[in-house]
Amino acid sequence: MINPIINGATAMAWFACALFFLRFWKQSRDRLFAFFALTFALLAGNAVAGALIDVSDERRYYIYVVRLFAFLLILYAIWDKNRASRRAG
Amino acid sequence: MSDAGLPPRVQRFITTHIDSLEKLEVLLLLWARTDREWTASAVSLELRITETSATARLVDLAASGLLVGNGATPPAWRFSPSHSEDAQAVTELSAVYGAKRVSVITFIFSRPLDKVRGFAEAFVLKKDKDGGGHG
After folding, report:
1. Contacts of residue A89 in chain B, CB cutoff 8 Å?
2. What is the ipTM metric for this complex?
3. B93 burial class (0-12, 13-18, 19+ CB within 10 angstroms)?
4. Taking the C-alpha atoms of B108, B114, B120 and B121 in order, what is their torsion angle to the nearest 10 degrees?
5. CB atoms within 10 A of CB B29
6. pTM of the entire predicted model
7. Could you tell me which residues are beta bridge partners of residue A53?
8. What is the largest distance, in Å, between two alpha-carbon atoms of chain B?
9. Which among B22, B3, B1, B17 is positioned nearest to B96, based on CA atoms?
10. Under CATH, which architecture does the B8-121 domain have?
C-alpha cells in the first residue's frame, strides 16, 4: 500500500522539477534546460509506471531502461552545453 | 524583476541576447549600418571601445544568430538575424532605446536571468579552452 504512495510522491517531485526547468528554458532559451525538463519528465513517467506495473510483471525491467536513458540524456545535455560554449567563443 | 515599461518582445530579446550595454551598442551599430561589413577594429573605432572587447561582442552576437561573419581575415560581420522575429525585436529595441534609454539600461543591469544563466554556465567544464581570450 505504501509503495504506490511513495511512487506517486516521487512522480510529483520529478514532475515539479521538470516544470521548473521548462520555465528556465522558456526564460533563457538555453537548450540545457530543455534537456533537463525532458529528463525529469521521463523520470516522472518512470515513477508513475513503477506504481502502475505489478511487481511480478516482467515489463517492469523496461523502467530501468528508461531511467538509464534519462541519465544518459543529462550527460548528453552537459556535453551539448560544453560544445555550444566552445562554438560560441 | 523590473520591466521598466518595456514591450514584452524587447524584454524577451534583451534577456535572451543582451548582457551588457556594450553588446547593445555594437548590435545597434551593425543594425543601423547594414550597408557594409564591420570588422572588430572598425567597430572599436566607431564606438571607442577596445578591439578585443569589440571582437568578443561580435563573436557573441554571431553565436546568437544575429550577425553573420564573412570568414575572412580579419573577419567582418554584418547584421543578418537568422529569425525574422529577432529583426523585428531589434527594430523595436532601437526605437525604445531612443525613447527610453534609462529604462533599457536599467533593465539590462537588473539582469533578471542572472541566476538561471549562472546555473547553466556551471555546467561548462572548461571555459575559453580555445584561447579566445575574451568572455
Report:
1. 56, 59-60, 63, 128, 132, 134-135
2. 0.71
3. buried
4. 80
5. 16
6. 0.55
7. none
8. 42
9. B3
10. Orthogonal Bundle (1.10)
